[in-house]
Amino acid sequence: MSDNPTAASKKDEIQSETGETTDHRIPQPDPITNKDLMKSWFGWWWANEIPHTFDRMLAPSFCFGLIPTLQKLYKDKDELAKAFQRHLLFFNTQATWGGGTLTGVTISLEEARAKALANGQEPISEDMINNTKVGLMGPLAGIGDSIDSGTIQYIFIAMFLPFAKQGNFLGALLPFLCFAIATFTYGYYFTKMGYSLGRSAAKEIMTGGRMAGIIDGLGILGLYMMGILAGQYITIRSYLKFSISGKVFNLNSILNEILPGLLPLVAVLLVYWYFQRQGLKITRALLYLTGALIVLSIFYII
Amino acid sequence: MQVTLSIWQALLIAIWVALVESRILGFATLMMRFSPLMTGMMVGFIMGDIKQAMIVTAAIQLVYMGFVAPGGALPAEPAIGAAIAVPVALIGHMSPHAAIAIAVPVALLGSYLYQFRFFLNTFALKPMDKYAREGNAHGLRFSIIGIPALISFVLFIPLIFIALYFGAPVISMVITNFAHGTVIHVLNSVGGGLAALGIAIIMQVIGKQRLLPFFFLAYFMSVAFAALKINMTIYAIFGVIIAIIYVSLSQKNAKVNN
User: Distance between CA atoms of A185 and B177, rounded to whole angstroms?
Assistant: First the structure.
């Protein structure tokens, strides 16, 4: 703290004069440099698909990338733990366009939050950081999937495929190297761009007094994107068939006549209802849901 | 030229597959997974016949041109297909087309293995919550990289090794037994249903019950328009517009009421 002779340390002094025993002053964050952005981008790039899970998808990799930066921002153990936890929640996007940009944006928001906490100002809320990520991850992934895996990758493969057909190993090595270098480079560029964009946005949010409206808007966007994802990712259908007096009924087509997409929606709402009643007990919900899915599918009910 | 496959060669190929499928080499392993080329090249190096290996792999590549994985789920694992089909083709002096016939079903089976990896990760990565609560960066790093990497190695190395060592007849038998069996059905159902959990978590975290109608709106939009295959970006633009309209209307209301 000695290296930061600003308004914050003045406040610290006042606080330490008034009450030493319950001293909750939060230390100033270290400044974020390009090196930190590179570290976080590399961390996300490297971890990317390694810890992929069904329930959180790529959140652990995103958190992994942010670890060194969050350690610089939050010298307070509680705030650091909170930051780790909020970045372990469901997150899925594409690596460069989505992950690069959002790594930058998230670092800028976390930096603004850490500074505000240290200066005793109203900080950017955790919801705001979560909702920004959730709102942007889907559309950016859509762009990234079609450009990186759908286009760039196959341009390089097609370019060098004649080598492979002649039995030359360069037909395999060159497209891989080109793809690896190109995506790593522009992903880092997106990280830097996201960081500077996020910084200017964070400033405006903090000074404009429009926080409540923006949080509502991001909440709408977040819930809306979850609705779209639920419709596209959750594939639960019934395989149950039964016959009544010779006539065969197919439960799935009956359900589809009543309301298309009913089963996935019921699954989400059941878990959501469980969280509403019991609090956010993720491990238990995971066990119950897996158990239910296994039992139902063994009997071909789903 | 007589080509054979020793225990060590089979093991090396199995380790290579585990490196690719664990994604331990970073984001760029995406291409090693989606394309059989790098795996074919490694098999060629290991078995000492790069030229023929590349010719066979180029034929397999053509089958998988344009494969993309929206949301991370690829309908086949071309790298696994190549890891089995290229050695079998080299040993049996098979034509590239016969190699394709082996690669395609094996790659399909491989995609279930990759899904099974997600399934194991889902449970095995739990310690990271504890480390996050403690603010323990070392533990967090270990549980995010170490545990899933270990799972992939334990999962892929023995299976690929056994498959290579015992050869193609066994593989085709396993595939026909499993492809329509209950095990695969259960894996599919669990995989397809567990996404509900992550989505419900975010809904709970956003925490604004009065905004839930927007979830329902989007859900039924995506169900109703599924056949139109609307691009995610278009959906997002709708979402942004809806959010802006809601916020500006509610702020206007607040002003009028004041």
Answer: 45
